[in-house]
Hints:
Blueprint lengths: L11 H16 L2 H22 L3 E7 L2 E6 L5 H13 L3 H14 L4 E2 L6 E5 L6 H18 L5 H19 L1
Antiparallel strand pairs: 1-2, 2-4, 3-4
Amino acid sequence: MLTxxxxxxxxxxxxxxxxxxxxxxxxxxxxxxxxxxxxxLLGTFGKMIGRHELVKEVRGKGLxxxxxxxxxxxxKLKASWNLLETANSGLFCxxxxxxxxxDHKILTQVAGHGNHTIKLLSPLVITDDDCTxxxxxxxxxxxxxxxxxxxxxxxxxxxxxxAARMRASG
Length: 170
C-alpha cells in the first residue's frame, strides 16, 4: 500500500510539538513578559523623541516595536539627511541598522523600501538584562547619528559613492 504525505497535512508529531510550545508559553509567563518588557522598551525609546531630533515616533505592541526617523530641524543634520534622501529614500535607517548589528550584535530590520522605520522584534524569552543592552545600543547608535561628521554619515557617504560608481560602470 502506498501512502502519501504533505507538509501541510495533519501530523501527530507537529501537533504534539505545538501543544508543548503552548504549554511552555503559558507556564513561563512569556506573554506577560512580552507585555512588561515591551512597555519598558517603548517607554525608553519614546523618551528618545525629546532627546534626538531624528527620532520622530515610536510605536508597538508587546515586543513588536517600530522606531520611525524623520527629517531633522538643525541645518547640519538636515543637509546630511537630504543628501541621503536624494541618493535613496530611506537610506538613513540602513545607517542605523548596520552599526546595531556590527557593533552591538542586535538584529533589526527596516520596515520596507523607502521607509523610515526600523522594526525591533525581540524574542518572547527576552530578559531585563537584554533590554538594558538593547536600550544602551540604540542610545549609542542614535546619538552617533546626531554627530556630523560621524561614523554613520561617513558610512552613508561611502554607500552613496559606491552606488554612483556602480551606476557609472554598469
